[in-house]
Design a protein that fits this description.
Blueprint: E1 4-9, H1 13-24, E2 29-35, H2 39-49, E3 53-55, H3 58-62, E4 69-72, H4 79-88, E5 92-96, H5 103-116, E6 120-123, H6 130-140, E7 147-155, H7 170-173, H8 177-192, E8 198-206, E9 238-245, E10 250-256, E11 264-271, E12 275-279, E13 282-289, E14 292-296, H9 306-320, H10 328-346, E15 352-353
Parallel strand pairs: 1-2, 1-4, 2-3, 4-5, 5-6, 7-10
Antiparallel strand pairs: 7-11, 8-9, 8-15, 9-10, 11-12, 12-13, 13-14
Helix pairs in contact: 1-9, 4-5, 5-10, 8-10
Bound molecules: nicotinamide-adenine-dinucleotide (NAD).
Nicotinamide-adenine-dinucleotide binds next to helix 1.
Amino acid sequence: MKTIRIGVIGAGGIAQHGHLPAYQNTPGMEVVAIADINEKKLAYVADKFGIPRKFTDYHELLQQDDIDAVSVCTPNYLHREMSINALQAGKHVICEKPVAVKGEDAQAIIAAAEASGKIFMGAFCQRFGSASQVLKRFIEDGKFGDIYYAKGGYIRRRGIPGLGGWFTTKAKSYGGCMLDIGVHALDRMYWLMGAPEPVAVSGTTFQAFKDNAIDGGWPPVDTRIGDVYPGINDVEDMASGYVKFANGATLLIESSWAGNCEPNSYMQLFGTEAGALEDSRGLKVFGEAAGNLLDIEPQVDPRINIVQAELAHFAECIRSGKQPLTKPQEIINVAKIIEAVYKSAENGGKQILIKDL
Ligand SMILES: NC(=O)c1ccc[n+]([C@@H]2O[C@H](COP(=O)([O-])OP(=O)(O)OC[C@H]3O[C@@H](n4cnc5c(N)ncnc54)[C@H](O)[C@@H]3O)[C@@H](O)[C@H]2O)c1
């Protein structure tokens, strides 16, 4: 098996606690280069993970002919530029969530991927969780019938990431909790629903914790070496959205970085034949058999490292040429839904038609 040679752009939290250890633990993948503008962090991470080449300018990493694939692990505003440049340099690309914040940005990345003939994958790692995979198998086996409603969320009580740094600076993050963690819940439900075409979205956003915000501890302290936190906090800490699809189905999404609420990550699916609830207590499937209501508790495997499973899938796609689990239209539609939630919130919750974005 030929080793896939990887370059990682961005040496922060998700690189150090996600991509780098996962690549190290995946046979047939080797990180040969890393790039970060923060020289101190770059030197520390290259040394810690034994990465032979390091660059403060990621363009130099892309010029390395022996690199097959790139992980984009930088702040959101850089995803479009870096993904497109990497694809145009002939690299396969996995880009961290949220891949894009606007449908137009997602479309530009997908167009570059199609023109390059390289694999492009969105790093929506929650699809690789055991419960997600179990549910997908039930659904693909027809056990749920048609899913006509889904609601879910990713709710933190006090969990604002990198307070005062890029995460809370709209010019760099493009948004707050909806974009950061809501997108995980949205993407997973949307994928399980079979990715119907979104037609209309309404949404609201709040910033209730601007003056008494508390840093939530991500990125982990050991990964913040040399980072600058100018103290800006101009993004939402709570958001919700309601989405209507062309097939008549609807979806409700909520997310919070901070709130006086019970923290949870949950999802409820309503299908004509069966439904499901997944939350911090586990997974339940609700059905009917022989005239009885039936609750099933499918076994899930909590040991799965979702980032490792995601990167192993990336490697498999590179080797086989098969389409990644994150299909191009799904990446575009998730970006359009988020864009429409923000647009609706800016317009007092008015319904936004996806075709008008
Ligand atoms: N999959 C997940 O669950 C998950 C979890 C956390 C973060 N993320 C995503 O990963 C991305 C990075 O988040 P993070 O938590 O690692 O942030 P971070 O701030 O810890 O790391 C980002 C790194 O990018 C570097 N960087 C900035 N500009 C650069 C440039 N021009 N060239 C090279 N490097 C540059 C920074 O110096 C920093 O080291 C974000 O898009 C975030 O949404 C995903």
